[in-house]
Amino acid sequence: MSEIVARIVAALARCARRALCSALGAGTAGLLLASCAVGPNFVPPAAPDVDRYTPEKLASPNSSAGGPSVPKQHFVSGEDVSLRWWTAFRSKPLDELIKMSVEHNPSLQAAEASIRIAQYNALAQRGLFFPQLGANYTPAQQQISGASSSGPGGQSPSVFSLHTAQLNVSFVPDIWGQNVRAVESLDAISEQQLFQLEAAYLTLTANVVTAAIQEASLRGQIAAIQRVVKIERGILEIVKNQFNAGGAAQVDVLAQEAALAQSEQLLPPLEKQLAVQRDLLTSLAGQFSADEILQKFTLDRLALPAHLPVSLPSKMIAQRPDVRAAEALLHSANAQVGVSIAARLPNITITGNAGAAGFSLAELFTPGTSFYVIAASATQPLFDGLTLYHKQKAAEAAVDQADALYRQAVVTAMQNVADALRSLQADARALQAAVRAELAAKASLDIIQKQLALGQVNQVVVLNAQQVYLTAAVVRVQAQATRLSDSAALFMALGGGWPTNCASDDWRKCALEDLPAATPQRVSDNGPPVR
């Protein structure tokens, strides 16, 4: 059977040689003509003509003079964001968790698949630059009417078989660059999907950092409330002893018990939030909730970045993946204008058929049974109800839309950086005020505790002091966590880091090199962690 097929292919190749060579010659000419494509050539938008993010000269975060000391931060203007910016928090568990998340989170894998989809679509469109070749073999059995004498040997009526084998060649020269523009548009979509991967990577790493800081904040708030609860229990014992000795009324005991219960009431909601936060971190790491991550975070194990890079606006625009993605969409829309213009111009189609037909399979290889057809056609839309004209106008309007979305992305990016800078400037003063309030409230509560033991203050003063200290302690923890979160927000607003010059086929190796290996681990229900 394989020998028969080979003989058929060889015979068809000999019969189609002339038509195929003509089509390929036309294809080469079409490729040369394709270098002149109609429609506007894409010009990347210029960087914004600004050199700062705030109206005034940027000042580093400063706390008030004479107040309690808080960690300092310094803005470094013109410095680029580090590739692994999260290492500025100097937390090994955070580094491990980010590595695990980047390696296992399905959102990044989905973004990578989107890139492959776009690239294959662009490669498929490139196939239209070449002639389209197909083969066809049609065996048929026919019966001729008795009124005709068309059968083999002129006999009638007759039942006979007819075998037809042929090669089909068609080619549409890209005279006006319609396919060139279509490929250009799909290549821009591929580029846009790459920036979407960068955006997903930046979002994932920023979410992991922010979620870890939030966990540390919740643990700090729980610890602060537990300290206050411990103090209130000690005060309750003092009041009870005074009541037993006749030095306090029962209402004082009940008031202190109510204050203790109110403080304890704050713990379950925070513990629930902490459990939910742990589930979030586990999910970001690409693990099931039953396989809880081992890494735990507290505020004292997260360092505040002392030096914060503030890249120039032009560099930030080139770094932000959402802005670059908007630019790629603008490029794609611009190329579609050329596609719509070319659709309104004359078009040429070249077709060719070559093959053989016989009453038996063997006759396909005998002289006189071969045939070929070479044809060309030219078409020009004359009237279509202005359909193609309006499609061109729609494509031009899509460019205006994409341009407006790009400019909005730039404005939003500038706003994000400015917001982060403003927040960090205010955070330093807010943390200093919170520390001052906590120290004053604790000192006041300590004095009142001593006075209470001596019977020198009433219960109202004690209750007020407890509430003030509780609020101050929680606010101080939140202010400390906010400063860390806003530092991460600045890194994210500046576009983070991406391995642009990665020599490896796997970008993760370049993005995560020098970080510790991450192995998914499971926390057992009744024992130590198990692998």
Describe the model:
It comes from Bradyrhizobium erythrophlei. It is found in: Cell membrane. With 531 residues, the chain is of the alpha+beta class. The protein has a single domain (76-141, 158-496), classed as Outer membrane efflux proteins (OEP). The protein has 11 helices and 6 strands. The chain has helices at 2-33, 92-104, 106-126, 178-244, 250-265, 267-284, 313-319, 321-342, 387-453, 459-493, 507-512, and strands at residues 74-77, 132-144, 158-171, 307-310, 347-358, 370-379. The chain has a 4-stranded antiparallel beta sheet, covered by helices on one side. A two-stranded parallel ribbon has the order 1-4. Helix 3 (106-126) runs antiparallel to helix 4, helix 4 packs antiparallel against helix 5 (250-265) and helix 4 runs antiparallel to helix 8 (321-342). The longest helix is centred in the middle third of the chain and has 67 residues, at 178-244. The radius of gyration is 38 Å and the shape is elongated. Mean pLDDT is 86; it is low at 1-35 and 519-531.
Largest sheet: 4 strands, antiparallel
* Distance, first to last CA: 58 Å
Q: Count the helices. How many?
A: 11
**CATH superfamily placement:** Outer membrane efflux proteins (OEP)
Structural class: alpha+beta
Radius of gyration: 38 Å
**What's the count of strands?**
6
- Strand fraction band? 5-15%
Number of domains: 1
The CATH C-level name is: Mainly Alpha
- Overall, the morphology is elongated
Q: What letter string, H or E per element, gives the SSE order? A: HEHHEEHHHEHHEEHHH
Q: Can you tell me the CATH architecture? A: Up-down Bundle
Strands ordered across the widest β-sheet: 2-3-5-6
What is the third-level CATH name, the topology? Outer membrane efflux proteins (OEP)
Low-confidence stretches: 1-35, 519-531
Indicate the mean pLDDT: 86
Give the % helix: 55-70%
GO molecular function, one term: efflux transmembrane transporter activity
Main location: membrane
Subcellular location: Cell membrane
Family: Belongs to the outer membrane factor (OMF) (TC 1.B.17) family.
